[in-house]
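Subject: sequence -> structure tokens, single chain

Hey, anyone have a minute? Need the predicted structure for the following. Not urgent.
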Amino acid sequence: MYLLRDPRSQSPGNSTPPKDSAPGMSNQSEERLRDALRAVIDGRTVKRAKHDLMYEGRNVVSLFVEEMERSGYIPTAVGDVKVEPGERVPAFYLDGTVAYFGWVFWEQFTSWKIRKLWGSVVKNAMGDWDIQIPATRKTVIYANQSLKLEMDIEHPPEF
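Reply:
Had a minute. Here:
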């Protein structure tokens, strides 16, 4: 799990500064924190997995959501994500102050039985997705459909 302890990580991304700083933070401190959050979101300098969204005793979930939306991640449900079998869409699921990264994709059981779901990249002891959200649930996830990728539907755990 990536803890937001060092907000000085360098990350490309939207550099639009916030209009007001978060309570108790200077504009410079908040911008460094936003840089760290963008590093989590884009996954270039920080592995996207399970991330604690507490920083120095402050809940930074709202800042994370703002940065996700600036990066093209929109709130939606798994069933509403436009993804075809053989494709995957990156998405985050928020559980309190923890953000989980995963993918919306189609899991194939047999040649005629498949299901659409969001699966976390965090795996359980059996090697399966630790958290799964099926398309039938209305749980809010934040997905970026513009970052859709191809995948091998025969071997989804390998992505």
